[in-house]
Amino acid sequence: MPILPVPPHFDPDRVGALWRVPYEQRAIDAEAWAKTHAIQLAGTDKERICLLLIDCQNTFCTPGFELYVGGLSGRAAVEDSIRICQFIYRNLGAITTIVPTLDTHTAMQIFHPLFWINADGGHPVGGQTVITLADLEANLWRVNPAVAGSLAGGDYAKLQRHAIHYARRLSEEGKYPLMIWPYHAMLGGIGHALAASIEEALFFHCQARRSQTLFQLKGENPLTENYSALAPEVMKGADGNAIAQKNTALIELLLSFDKVIVAGQAKSHCVAWTLDHLITEIQARRPEYAGRLYLLEDCTSPVVVPGVIDFTSQANDAFQRFERAGARLVSSITPMDEWT
User: Fold this and answer.
1) How far is CA 300 from the centre of its chain?
2) Rounded alpha-carbon distances, angstroms, from residue 143 to 77, 119, 133, 280
3) Which residues, listed in sequence order, are joined to residue 330 by a DSSP beta bridge?
């Protein structure tokens, strides 16, 4: 499939800004673009290619928002988004389906400040507080009794047992400890929406190729983190009963494609955890399918808060692990037919 030019409406200088996508005009533009460049309907593709975009939302991709992935330069997510948009436009005729995930939260969740209080009744500072099993056992933090009515039918003791169980499971499974994040990706808010340039590119692809964009929400469960788009961090409560499930439908969808290309934010968290779950599923079924995964290394960045925390090494270690499992690390500017 030939590399296409980037449509004239795309302005890299607007990436990272908030604006409204002019849907009607872009629909007209996309149809004309498809005719000019003889772009075929996605349903006719002989090689079916999926672009999995992880959490390309304002919360992570737009400067000034809660968990903007600025990296060391301060522009990491913006630069990633520019390359993602250009990749979509240049490969418009090859990408069959785009699957964007949307981190989706409300205020009362286990990783938000409102869920916890200390001995003085104060809440943890989002983005600066890690709560460990030892902290809970020492009663440095405990579940806020005020949230029990909404989250546990008023059964505070049950909610407190779950919190201790949850911290223990994270530790036993070698996962990141419980980080209390700033309120982010709040359902109904601007931060939850896709970054405007990304949204425009997805809408343009849908119109040009007549391929429905398959949005996937994740992270709504108040009792567990959900870095991965495929499974929550903890799936059973203290009583052994299920509190959450894997997204089996999405797993099956991804495994049905000839190629799955992955990009988005953040490399150290939601991207890495999604890939970890996907590769685990592949290894359990058909290990050779790992060769169908292509990771756009220049379209994702790790969480870095200068002077506070830097997950760069963890992100790079994870991607090297995925490569050893058979996934391909590629560049967005390399033509797809040159990927090995």
Assistant:
1) 10
2) 34, 11, 13, 33
3) 296
Tell me how far apart the alpha carbons of residues 239 and 259 are, in angstroms, rounded to a whole number: 40
- Residue 128 confidence class, pLDDT cut points 50, 70, 90: confident
User: Which of these, 30, 32, 42, lies nearest to 94 by C-alpha position?
Assistant: 42
pLDDT tens digits, 222-255: 999 999 999 999 999 999 999 999 999 999 999 9
Distances, alpha carbon 98 to alpha carbons 73, 91, 172, 261, 276, in Å: 29, 12, 35, 9, 20
User: Terminal CA-to-CA distance of the chain, rounded, Å?
Assistant: 16
Residue 139 CA to residue 131 CA, distance in Å, equals 11
Separate counts of helices (H) and strands (E) for the chain: 10, 12
Domain 36-105+187-338: give its CATH superfamily: Isochorismatase-like (3.40.50.850)
- Could you give the residue range(s) of every CATH 3.40.50.850 domain in the chain? 36-105+187-338
88 within 8 A of 81, measured Cβ to Cβ: no
CB 39 within 8 A of CB 33: yes
Alpha helix ranges (H) inside the chain: 23-36, 58-61, 76-90, 133-137, 148-151, 156-172, 196-209, 248-255, 270-285, 312-324
Position 27 scores a pLDDT of 98
Closest residue by Cα to residue 160 from 105, 219, 110, 231: 110
The structure's pTM equals: 0.96
Q: Is the pLDDT of residue 308 over 80?
A: no
Q: Is the peptide bond before 266 cis (omega within 30 degrees of 0)?
A: yes
Token pair 């929550």 is found at 232
C-alpha distance from residue 177 to each of 168, 203, 304 (Å): 9, 37, 17
Residue 96 in tokens: 């069959």
Q: How far apart are CA 69 and CA 193, in angstroms?
A: 16
- E strand or H helix at 265, and its extent? none
| C-alpha to C-alpha distance for 42 and 78, rounded to whole angstroms | 28
